[in-house]
Every structure is written in C-alpha cells, then in structure tokens.
Amino acid sequence: MTPSVDAAVAEQDAHEPDYVIAASASQIETTPRTLKHDDTFAVFDAHGDAVPGLASNHGLFHRDTRHLSHFFLTIEGVRPLLLSSTVREDNATLTCDLTNPDLPGRDGGEALLHDLIHIRRSRFLYRSACHECVSLHNFDVVPRRVEIAFTFDADFADLFEVRGAKRSRRGVRHMPLLAHDGVRLAYTGLDGKVRRTGLHFQPVPSELEGSQARYRLDLAPGATQVIYMEIRCDGAEPHGGAKLTFRRALHASRATLRARVARAAEVTSSNQHFNDAMKRAVSDLAILITDTPEGAYPYAGVPWFSTVFGRDALITAFETLWMDPAIARGVLLHLAANQADALDPAADAEPGKILHEVRFGEMAELGEVPFRRYYGSVDSTPLFVMLAGAYVERTGDLDTARLLWPAVAAALGWITDYGDRDGDGFVEYGRRSGDGLVNQGWKDSHDSVFHADGRLARGPIALVEVQAYVFGAWRAAASIARRLGHVPDAAVFERNAERLRDAFDAAFFDSGLGTYVLALDGEKRPCRVKSSNAGHALFAGIALPGRAAAVAAQLMDGASFSGWGVRTIAAGEARYNPMSYHNGSVWPHDNAVIAMGLAGSGFRREAARIFEGLLRASISFDLRRLPELFCGFARQRSQGPVSYPVACAPQAWAAAAPLALLQATLGLGFDIDARRVTFARPELPEFLDELVLRRLTLGGEMMDVRIQRAGGSPALSVLDRRGDIALWVEA
Q1: CA–CA distance, 730 with 489 (Å, rounded to integer)
Q2: pLDDT-based confidence at 351, cuts 50/70/90?
C-alpha cells in the first residue's frame, strides 16, 4: 500500500512561489549569448561581457555554481563599440567584433578616432573551461599604443541564488592568489567544499591584480596582436599555456560536435528558412548533449536547467528517436541507473520512481533546495516505460531491452504500488514534504491546475496526460515483454491498459467541454478546463477512436491555436494569460507532442498547420532558435510572435520540436521486423516543394529518400540504399 500523505503537504498553497525564476529584468533586452559543454555553460551579452546587475544571469557556470560573475573588456578605460555578435551555426564558438569609440590622445597626443582598432573576441567552452582569443588589429596609418583591460570577479553564487532565491548565510570568499600569468579565485561553501576559478593569460599581462589584467600594446600600422585566456572551473592548471590549450581544445570541441551531428539523419529541402531551422535544431541538440557513463544525455536548457531532467530528456528522446536513437538509449540507461530504490519523502522518492532533477550546487548539497537528487515528477516514470518500448520497436535492440527490463518492471511496480494513491486506477501526485514541488506534471507552476472558476485544484491530483502516459506504459511494457519472451506478463499488461482506457474515458471525457478535462482533484471533481494537455491523450493512444475528432477540433480552434501554435490554456478560461508561464503561452515541445498525437489519429493536416506556425515563429527569434516558450498572443499580419522574458534558449525539447513535427507530418515510421522505412499518408507542408532525408537507419542499414510535391500528394523515391532495407508508402 502507498504510505499516507500528510493532507497539509498534499494541498496546494496558492501563494507559494515554488522556486519560480525571478523576472525583474528581461533577457530579451540583453540579447544573451549562450555556450555549453557538458556540465559547464555560460551566458554573456552581445559584447562578450558578463555584466552584473539587477537579475543578471550572466557568467560562467559549472555544476550549478557561478564561477565567473563579472568579465568586462575595455579599451583605454571605456567599453568598445559593438559591430556584430554571433554564435556559430554549429554552436562551437561565440564571436564578437568590436571597435574603439572616439578617444582622446594619450598624454596630450593625437586623438584616436573611432573605428581604427578592430577587436575580435572568439570564445568557446570545453571540459570545465572557457577559452578565449582576443585579437587587436590597427587599421590606422600610424602606430598606436592602446591599453586593453579585463576586469573580472567570481561571486560563486549558487544557481538558485542567481534565479532569485535569498540566503541568510553564505560561505567564505578567499583573497585572490596571484601568479605571474594568472589569478586564482576561491570560495569555501557552507557545505565544506572549496570551489575555484583559475584565470590564465598569454602573453603575461603588463599589470595583473586580483580583479584586473591590463595590457599596454604597441600596434604598428596594419599589425595584429593576440591575447589568449583560459578560465578554468575545476581548479586544474593549464597544460602548455593558454595559447596551446585554446588550439587543442577548439579542435577537440568542434570534432565532438561534428561527431554528434554526423550520427543523426540529415534533412535538407527546397526552403532555406526550413533548412536553417533544422540546422539550428540539430546544432542546439548537439551542444546540449552531455556524455554520461551510460551514453548521450540531453541537458534540459540554458541557463536555468542545464542539468539532468528526467521528463525533459524523455520527451526530447521521443522527438529525436527517428533521427538518432542513440539519444533515447543514453537517456534510458542513465535514468535506469538513477532510479529510486527506497522511500525518501524529502526527495519525493519511492521505489521504482524515475528521476526528476539532479543538482550539484551548494544549496542542493545543504538541502536548502530539495533538488540534489529529486524525484518529484509524476510523469517521468510512465514516460520512461513508454520510451523504452518505443526505442525497442524502433531499433530491435534486445540487448538493451534486457538491460532495461528490471528498471521497467520496477517502474510498473511504482505505478501500481505508489502512483495510484487511492486505489481508483488513476495515478495521482502530491508532494511528501513541504519543500517539494506543489504541481508535479510538466506544467509545474503553482497555479497551473485549476477549476473552471479559477480555484486552484487540491491534491492528490490525477492529470489527464499522466493517465495517458500510464496507458502508453502498459502497452509499451507488453511490447517489450513479448519480444523478450515474457508472454504471460504481456497479456497482463495489455489487460491493465484496456481497463485504464475504459475508466479514463468515463472519468475524463467531458461532452459539454468537447474534450478531456485537465485533471481530477483530490475529491475526484473534474477540472473542466480546455488545455493542451488533452492533446497528449492522442499522443499516448488512450483516446477512443470516436473522441479524437472532438479533441482535434478543440485544439485547433481559435481559442486554443494562436496561429503560431497551440496554447497551454485556451483563451477564455479563468486563468488564461498569454504572458504566463503555463496558462496561455505556447511551448514548442508541447506542440510537437500534440502534433505527433494528431498525426497518429489521422489528422496529419492539422499537424502540418502546427508545423507551419512554429517554423514561421522560429524565423523571428534570435539565431532562428525556438525558445523554451513564447507568449500566446494571436498571430497578426506582419508581426512576429511575442517573446517570454525569461525563456531558456537553447532548450532541448524545444530544439527537437521541429524534428518531431517533421516526422508527424510525413507519417514517418520504422518497421524493424519487415526491414522497411514507412510513410503513412504523408503530408508535405505547404512551405516545402522538395525534401531529402539522408541516413535513415534501420539496424545497420541505411536509406536516403526524396519527397517531392506532385499534384495533390507527395511522391517518394529512394536516392540511395545501403543494405536490405525497403521503402513502404501508405497512400
């Protein structure tokens, strides 16, 4: 039986902020430039600086601690003028082009007019370090002496402090330690750990202090001088100097990104905007992936969620499964290795439950936030089983299936023994300690689950999409069991799925609403709210065939579909707000899941409409990068979408959304038993006349396919085939 839950803990507090991200300043105003490699990420402004200030999230972060909070370049004591700033298409480097403003002459000498000294900053991250090359070129016809200074500081703030959390006590910052070519900054936290930042310069600065490095450079006409820097977050010393490590690390970093991209299928088309969007999606995924001992794992997003998240990675793996199954395998094995095996109320952990979030910072180590190893998501566990089934069906990888089977069995045990808290056949959530998340579905804001009159729902809460995922989990477990020869188990799992489907339809479908209700509250009263969550029922397959048309119509009507995408909450609902985090905004990943569900239910044209909306939206965002979310205002002629002020970008499940939308629109699938790539009633979006998919893999075999517009339906042809693999098209 499920242990009892304190009613006061299970109920939601309408006034609790629930670890919200402070939004006293908008990231959009600063045009952030982000970089990431493994457990290190950085946020700079367009100049390449990290500028402290109100709600600033700038800096260099490693394992949830800010190792560099201030980093500022000046020429002759003033900030250079910005010429351009961009992150490479493959996300390998940030390049900022700067120049001098008008400057008075030194010691009464000739003034330096603007645009005579060109400064180029090239920067990237690799293995716990930030590497930078600063080149200065004199375009004047006379020699120039200029002073370049780098000021720096490290506050060693925990990421949750940067997000807005207040602490009554902090550890001790130590005095800087100077060497001939660098500075070491250090902090001892209340957890007893010493965190260090080492800055190393080459050539040796003219002057070096604990917070500044200054160079006095003599530049002949047409001459260039170069400064190299390495900023390490792991306390290690550079090997061979900053210049040599820059070159070695740059080569290794680009090789790693190229290998990740080359592993996946390639997409090109007749539409350059589409090509750019797909390249950005693949590049963002490549940089967000971290290599764990179990395999590739996409961290959720920069800046706030650059760590292991269960739900986010599972959905990202679903979105990319057709293109790169290695991501799904890495996610499944890593989550299985970290599956809960005991009760821990403080971490919302129960045997068999799949991880929600991992944090490594001081506040997590001290228990000031509960996320050191936290299991407070109700949907990660059934999604884990669903993905395991989808991965095996996609690849036929029975060796991995056998490795995963104990974790799958434990997850199913959690569903029956702990997930169903009151024995009614539905999986509910309610936190087991006062520090946990109040809402534990993907919409985890404190106000995201409510009744038609706006009252917040009281727990334990059964979400519509969670029941759908549980249905999908039983079906997936049955599929795996049959492949592994566990035939009696498969029959039991199938019966569980069908029993849940009937109960779900009776309790969640509302004919007056025309769709599924958002949730059932702790007293089994339905939250009669039109939400995007209902689309997840189509994705998981729990919707009865007769319900799909009504759900699709509701999702695509004017109240729900903004023109850019499906809103989380339909316009007109009590708590609808297009500027909110979860109550009226548009989330690309949510739309991708909905589109996959629509396509699987026969509504491929509706899926194509979502695809077109999000593609058009991506054109308006910086770097053509789909953010975590954007506002749900209606699409207007000659206007782009409205940004959300603190959205993460890049974000893994948002980056992967176009990939899933493409698969949904094309009806792309894989039949491992028949050795064929399948296209079921494919639709070619209106913005594409021709599409080429290369390196579609099935086992060790591969196929390239061209899709062309031909009258009313697309025509498909095989461009290349390597192995005994066939193409099958259902008209």
Answers
A1: 33
A2: very high
To 5 degrees, how large is the angle CA 575–CA 578–CA 583?
40
In a 13 Å sphere around the CA of 461, the CA atoms on its Cβ side amount to 34
Q: Rounded to whole angstroms, how far apart are CA atoms 679 and 696?
A: 12
Measure the CA–CA gap between 583 and 437, rounded to whole angstroms. 17
- CA 245, 246, 247, 248 dihedral sign is positive
Task: Output b/e per residue, 135-167; b: 16+ Cβ within 10 A.
Answer: ebbbebeeebebebbbebbbbbbbbbbbbebee
How far is the C-alpha of 579 from the C-alpha of 219, rounded, in Å?
Answer: 51
User: Where do the H-state alpha helices sit in 321-361?
Assistant: 325-337
What six digits make up the tokens of 709? 């517009």
State yes or no: pLDDT of 2 exceeds 70: no
Q: Does an H or E element contain 62, and which?
A: strand 59-62
> What is the full DSSP assignment across 636-679?
-TT--PPBPTT--SSBHHHHTHHHHHHHHHHTEEEETTTTEEEE
The answer to whether 303 and 648 have CB atoms below 8 angstroms apart is yes
Q: For the segment 568-605, what is each residue's pLDDT rounded down to a tens digit? A: 999 999 999 999 999 999 999 999 999 999 999 999 99
Q: Supply angle C-alpha 160, 125, 47, rounded to 5.
A: 80
Q: Which residues contact 238 (CB under 8 A, 6 or more apart)?
A: 200, 230, 232, 245
Q: What is the pLDDT of residue 109?
A: 75
- Summarised one tens digit per residue, pLDDT across range 208-250 is 999 999 999 999 999 999 999 999 998 777 778 899 999 999 9
Amino acid identity of 300? A
Residues 612-621: tens digit of each pLDDT: 999 999 999 9
pLDDT at 16 over 80: no
Residue 545, phi then psi, degrees to nearest 5: -55, -35
* Helix H or strand E segment including 44: strand 40-44
Structure tokens at 17: 């902020």
